[in-house]
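Exercise 4. Each item below gives a protein and its sequence. For each, produce the structure-token representation.

Item: Biopolymer transporter ExbD (Leptolyngbya boryana CZ1).
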Amino acid sequence: MRLPEDPDLPPQIYLAPLIDVIFALLTFFIMSTLFLTRSQGLPVALPKAVTAESQKVSQVVITITPNGELALDKKPMNISTLPAAVREILGRNPKAVVVINADEKVPHGQVITVMDRLRSIPNIRLAIATRQP
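Answer:
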């Protein structure tokens, strides 16, 4: 039994599926980049500092919103319960840096009050978040 020969067609690359895959990969990488660059904590306008440096170790973020509300790692917190909650977190990770993420409109006295309460914790490492101009 003899089978009919197929006509010899040159190999082809179909571009439509290739373009679909490229756009899917591009969308994935754009979305993942957006999620990686998002700042921890609640949205606040950080003050500028020319000498600002990035912190590479694990962080505990305390956010002070413009209306004076406190949040510890995005959870609302009271100033009286803040030291105990931070002490508990630092008990699990003693090398963590406590970053105060205060809005630039927050009165200086309120930031000092938070720092004063946190200094009662032994071996605490405090930092204030800023943004580079």
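Check: The CA atoms of residues 53 and 132 lie 9 Å apart.
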